[in-house]
Amino acid sequence: MQNFISKRLEQYTTKRPQEVLVVTVEIAGEQDKIVIFKGFSSSLMRSTAFDPDVPVLPDEANIESIDRVASPYNPQTPRYIQQGLSWSAMQVLLTEVGV
To answer: Cβ of 63: how many Cβ atoms within 10 Å?
Structure first.
């Protein structure tokens, strides 16, 4: 299934719209931060394609950590729910909400 990780994280945020995910990743040797909110992903460090079918978070990306932040997201004063989650810890939460 193409773009499986990204779709699961986006589905999680549609089921928990009060949360924003801030994902720190390494893509092709470069670090990026991706915000996922209400089913949409956007990079904080590089341009995001207008086409929603172009993945912001490709499956080959190395997820370094995931922060769960209360919505609305304010980068100057984020209200963290959990910080520094590993991909395996996030998978538990994905399973809890059925994605």
So the answer is: 18
Give pTM, 2 decimals: 0.90
Give the rounded distance of the alpha carbon of 22 from its chain centre: 5
Q: List alpha helices for the chain, DSSP H.
A: 4-15, 87-97
6, 21 in Cβ contact below 8 A? no
CA nearest neighbour of 13 among 46, 47, 52, 40? 40
Question: Half-sphere exposure of 5 toward its Cβ, with a 13 Å CA cutoff?
Answer: 17
Instruction: Give tens-digit pLDDT for 38-49.
Output: 999 999 888 777
Burial class (CB in 10 A: 0-12, 13-18, 19+), 41: buried
pLDDT tens readout for residues 25-38: 998 899 999 999 99
| DSSP helix/strand/coil, 86 | coil
DSSP 1: -
